Amino acid sequence: MTNGLHLEALKTIQSSLTSPEFLNNPYPFYDKLRSVNPICWGNSLKYPGWYVTGYEEAVAILKDTRFQNRIPLPQTSKKYEHLKHIQNDMMLFKNQPDHKRLRMLVSKVFTKGVVEYYRSYIKETVDGLLNQVQHKKIMDIVSDFAFPLASLIIAKVLGVPAEERHQFREWTVTLIQTIDFTRSRKALASGNDTTKMLLVYFRELIQKRKQNPQDDLISMLIKEEQQGDTLTDEELLATCILLVIAGHETTVNLISNSILSLLNHPEQLIELKENPSFIEKAIEEFLRYESPTQMTARMASEDIELNGTTIKKDEHVYIFIGAANRDPKKFIDANVLDITRNPNPHLAFGYGSHFCLGSSLARIEAQIAIHTLLQRFSNFQLVTLDPKWRKLTGFRSLEELSITFD
Ligand code: HEM
């Protein structure tokens, strides 16, 4: 490994992190970077930092609390006040002790057992959505199926009336851009405006639930807030908004990416259709193969030595989850889709103290959605052979995925 090769690979990735080639298929770029060094310095994102593409290195960082979470917006700026304040109160960007306190409250609702309670509602919702398209023989998986499904489920869990959830599509599409590393000033400005609207919406809803509690997450959090001083008003609002974003965006991507992966691997589609009991393993493989969250970030709270590299205090670290999940040192035939892969210790839901709280819910939604689609319909074909990916580096997200079927 020479310095020249190192620099050349870095230059390639630096000029390409938002290129159409990268967006279409980031994996060759990840492979190149990893083969030079699984931790290397780069400056193609807004803030320069360490690009981590190796599995072991990603795990080491995610489990080390000296690598801290922080909100991605500059704290000194007077701009984007609403967005900054709300992100500041989200557990995703908090460290101990606040992180533990907030996470404990919400995790009570996201246990496997509680999520199982939603299974029949998810199945009913999936069937209802498929009934609406079955005679048309064509649908956009993103807007006709994955998005309304994720939206109806998170609305149900949170306690948002189903008829009010339509506005969430635009809101979440805008907000996800504010936490992506490609975000522009325009995206931040519209994210700030959207946050204002979400604050008005949730303040009203919280007020209604205070007067008339229901069997939902918002009412439960209000009860916690009223019983002790464990949750502030602002944290309650931030938690609702975090769950809306997290509950929509990544689950939609998991369902759409799974279907695209199957259509690009017809032999695996047949195998899954003939062996429905493979569904759990198949979803794990889709999570690994086209990880909905491709990247997360941390900042070093002190100088840290990792596999011969010194990461200095206050330096940014970008963990490319999508790359770690294709590390050949960890996964045999890492670039091959294998719906029977076992074991499959992917990092799609993160690792360590911030491990995804919604993983059980997302898994059940995806399992029921894909299983039901394959059992009810057949002869699936892509309408466009090359579906477009959204311009995000942190998320693997299709703009649309139109398919025909019988
Ligand atoms: C396929 C779907 C999903 C994927 C791939 C995903 C991925 C992730 C990842 C990678 C993290 C860790 C981020 C980090 O360490 O910086 C995370 C955290 C989180 N996710 Fe998910 N997520 C999904 C679905 C959901 C759903 C459905 C919900 C809620 C309804 C949810 C709620 C959360 C929350 C609250 C956190 C923050 C946890 C913390 O900071 O302690 N996620 N998710």
Automatic annotation (TrEMBL):
Top-rank lineage group of the source organism: Bacteria
Transmembrane portions of the chain: none
A GO molecular function held by the record: iron ion binding
Gene3D superfamilies reported in the protein's UniProt record: Cytochrome P450
Keywords linked to the UniProt accession: Heme, Iron, Metal-binding, Monooxygenase, Oxidoreductase
Keyword Metal-binding attached: yes
Entry keyword annotation includes Cell inner membrane: no
Alphabetical list of PROSITE patterns matching this protein: CYTOCHROME_P450
Family of the protein in this entry: Belongs to the cytochrome P450 family.
Name assigned to this protein: Cytochrome
